[in-house]
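Quiz preparation item.
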């Protein structure tokens, strides 16, 4: 049962999903909903997926199951039986949300589609999570995580240029993107239900959810007509500068600053090497005037050797401690062992030792997804045993959430989030990705910038036609759809006067500044509470608002390494991979549900809330299975290219024209289908490959056989032929492919064309879900300060004379 004081405690969720939707149910449970996992009599298939506790299979021992099903209850229902389906419909009478991940059309075939469910419960919200959506040319395509990674475009820039494109070895990531988006869709639909009195169907595409972390790839194509590719290192002039450095016990990430302004960024590093007595040669370099444009690898080599020797003589812990003490941007490429020992996570109480009743032992799991007024969730319960709650749940059929009776058809004309007011002090990528669903679905959003402190996303590129300009950045235009933009210089007293008025106006006050920044401006959570006691405040910083490393600088690429993603990306014989700012796309999947849940709670109780979200902790949650494998089995998961323990062939295979296609064969039946697809049926009985165990034993030879077939064919031909035989396959798509050629994305109008005064026509993605009662129609990104006068006069109530005085005082620049 849910905690009665939790934000979503009044709501009941029926979770029919397989592993593709488990995170959605977990997140709703963490937010306080009563989530009931509805399983077949033999149990969810995830219970049979490795790794297992002590490597002993069993329905209560799968670490994947334990990771993504905490805080849920479990019942068993046979949906293949008429009596079982009738029982499920009885459950649906008292439910608010149903999550399902069956193949498109299968719920209808069972008599459990949206129309049938809404007949027994007009207020019910059905969330369908499918590979490519409920309609379109790819709707029946089969897919696994690697196929989503390929078809979304992410794989085209993942891995080293000298090797095949690589997925993250923890092969759950696309399902986590989808699960977070599914919760967002469900909570937006729930918000609209309070206005209209009726539920609706939420149709989510995992391909689209995974594509929403792809802004630089699509932005580069849309702005410049160039596809990004896999690159091994950042380039300055003609030199390839390392991002990853080997040290005594692993690797760290650090990018050497050079050129104008570099001394300021290098000062802490040089102070440290002076302190340890190794700074002489490095101090002698004129960093400010290095001829960057002329540098070659030969020029860089003697400098690089100095750094390499320095790092190799020290451990990750020693180097990270130095970076923390001397304030320079170096982070460890953490393993699961490092993450579990991380001092910041321990100080903030992330870990919870949860009793496993079936095993008679405790297992360590990440706990809170947010702190602030209190941890959310307050407690963590172990994933349920199969059917553990049958008696309690079926004994109370019909009890649960109160049903809404009337339907207000007029309310359907309004957007679901209309009337919600947001003061947005966010910036770069986490900020706009958190706020975008609100502006896209009708909230009144005011984004605060100034010429003195631009949102840095405006100035990083890619720029339209490669012309740098703050109004020509493709990334900014894609993620800042809708809302209003005002210029307010928060360094001035007049600017702070406006900011305080904005806080008084808002329902939500959001920022993703570094820890303590809002307090230093006089807009910390206590100050906001004095101005607006009902406000919901969410601060999303790198490592949270407290703890020994809270004040450390960094970005999404640093936190990806610190959480452990780099160690899980790439090939075992190579250095850890580089995922760029990957965690920038994780944190919003927590921020948005937290805000929507807090708004729902405030609607019922009148209570505001302060939410402290750590981008680093959000990323750690997404690696729970590998952390469990270490804490339970003392095994450190490592990167393994594209290989997975329960599938073969499984990888990205080179096709003609230097293109690639991801292929995943999970069962012996699929292997026979694969052999038929390539016109080699006899291969199915080849003793080297006849069973999954055989194929894993001979995987190198298997990959050569598959590669010999794919290299002679077009990548789309490979995908089409294999999919026609029921084998999961997907082209490793580029930015050009997803924007110009993907028929499924075009069918679902995922990328919408918008007209912009500086960019002309450009494309931006809508949500990865479609609400049956609320289409998503994007609005273009705003120019810097474009709406300042309108917001100050019409929304904040300032008179013209006051606005003129603000301008004279320098507050509006």
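Solution:
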């Amino acid at each position: 049962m849910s905690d009665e004081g939790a934000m979503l405690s009044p709501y009941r969720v029926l979770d029919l999903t397989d592993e593709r939707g488990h995170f959605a149910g977990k997140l709703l449970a963490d937010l306080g909903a009563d989530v009931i996992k509805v399983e077949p009599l033999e149990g969810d298939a995830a219970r049979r997926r490795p790794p297992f506790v002590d490597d002993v299979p069993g329905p209560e021992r799968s670490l994947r199951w334990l990771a993504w099903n905490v805080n849920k209850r479990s019942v068993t229902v046979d949906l293949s039986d008429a009596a079982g389906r009738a029982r499920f419909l009885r459950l649906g009478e008292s439910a608010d949300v149903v999550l399902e991940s069956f193949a498109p059309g299968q719920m209808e075939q069972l008599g459990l589609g949206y129309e049938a469910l809404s007949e027994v419960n007009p207020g019910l919200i059905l969330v369908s999570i499918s590979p490519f959506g409920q309609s379109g040319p790819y709707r029946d395509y089969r897919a696994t995580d690697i196929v989503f990674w390929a078809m979304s475009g992410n794989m085209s820039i993942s891995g080293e240029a000298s090797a095949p494109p690589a997925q993250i070895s923890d092969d759950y990531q696309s399902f986590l993107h989808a699960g977070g988006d599914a919760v967002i869709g469900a909570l937006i639909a729930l918000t609209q239900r309070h206005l209209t009195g009726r539920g609706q169907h939420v149709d989510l595409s995992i391909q689209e959810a995974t594509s929403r972390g792809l802004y630089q790839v699509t932005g580069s194509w849309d702005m410049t007509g160039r596809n990004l590719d896999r690159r091994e290192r950042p380039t300055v002039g003609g030199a390839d500068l390392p991002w990853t450095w080997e040290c005594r016990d692993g690797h760290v990430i650090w990018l050497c600053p050079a050129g104008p302004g570099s001394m300021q960024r290098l000062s802490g590093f040089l102070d440290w090497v002076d302190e340890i007595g190794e700074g002489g040669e490095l101090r002698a370099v004129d960093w400010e005037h290095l001829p960057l444009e002329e540098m070659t690898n030969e020029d860089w080599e003697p400098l690089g050797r100095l750094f390499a020797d320095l790092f190799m003589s020290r451990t990750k812990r020693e180097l990270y401690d130095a970076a923390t003490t001397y304030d320079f941007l170096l982070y460890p490429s953490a393993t699961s062992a490092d993450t579990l020992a991380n001092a910041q996570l321990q100080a903030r109480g992330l870990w919870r030792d949860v009793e496993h009743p079936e095993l008679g032992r405790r297992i360590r799991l990440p706990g809170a997804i947010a702190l602030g007024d209190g941890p959310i969730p307050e407690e963590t319960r172990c994933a349920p045993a199969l059917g553990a709650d049958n008696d309690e749940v079926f004994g109370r059929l019909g009890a649960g959430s109160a049903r809404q009776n009337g339907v207000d058809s007029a309310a359907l004309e309004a957007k679901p989030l209309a009337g919600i007011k947001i003061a947005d002090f966010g910036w770069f990528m986490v900020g706009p990705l958190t706020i975008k669903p609100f502006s896209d679905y009708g909230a009144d959003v005011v984004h605060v910038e100034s010429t003195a402190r631009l949102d840095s996303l405006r100035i990083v590129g890619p720029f339209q036609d490669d012309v740098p300009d703050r109004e020509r950045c493709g990334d900014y235009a894609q993620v800042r759809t809708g809302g209003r933009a005002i210029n307010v210089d928060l360094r001035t007293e007049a600017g702070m006067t406006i900011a305080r008025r904005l806080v008084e106006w808002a329902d939500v006050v959001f920022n993703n500044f570094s820890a303590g920044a809002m307090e230093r401006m006089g807009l910390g959570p206590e100050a906001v509470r004095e101005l607006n006691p009902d406000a919901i405040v969410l601060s999303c910083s790198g490592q949270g608002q407290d703890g020994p490393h809270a004040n450390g600088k960094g970005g999404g690429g640093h936190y990806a390494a610190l959480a452990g993603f780099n160690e899980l990306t790439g090939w075992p014989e190579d250095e850890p991979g580089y995922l760029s700012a990957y965690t920038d796309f994780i944190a919003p999947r927590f921020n948005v549900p937290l805000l929507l849940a807090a708004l729902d709670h405030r609607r019922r109780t009148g209570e505001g809330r302060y939410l402290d979200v750590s981008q680093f902790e959000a990323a750690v949650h997404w690696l729970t299975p590998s952390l469990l494998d270490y804490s339970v089995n003392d095994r450190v998961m490592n990167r393994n290219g594209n290989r997975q323990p329960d599938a073969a062939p499984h990888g990205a295979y080179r096709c003609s024209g230097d293109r690639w296609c991801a292929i995943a064969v999970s069962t012996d039946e699929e292997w026979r289908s694969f052999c038929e697809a390539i016109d080699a049926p006899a291969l199915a009985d080849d003793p080297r490959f006849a069973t999954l165990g055989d194929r894993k034993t001979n995987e190198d030879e298997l990959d050569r056989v598959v590669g010999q077939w794919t290299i002679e064919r077009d990548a789309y031909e490979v995908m089409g032929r294999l999919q026609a035989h029921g084998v999961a396959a997907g082209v490793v798509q580029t930015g050009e492919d997803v924007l110009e050629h993907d028929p499924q994305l075009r069918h679902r109008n995922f990328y919408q064309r918008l007209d912009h005064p500086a960019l002309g026509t450009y494309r931006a993605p809508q949500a990865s879900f479609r609400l049956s009662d609320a289409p998503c129609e994007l609005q273009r990104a705003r120019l810097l300060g474009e709406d300042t006068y309108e917001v100050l006069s019409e929304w904040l109530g300032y008179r013209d004379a006051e606005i003129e005085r603000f301008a004279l005082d320098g507050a509006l620049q």
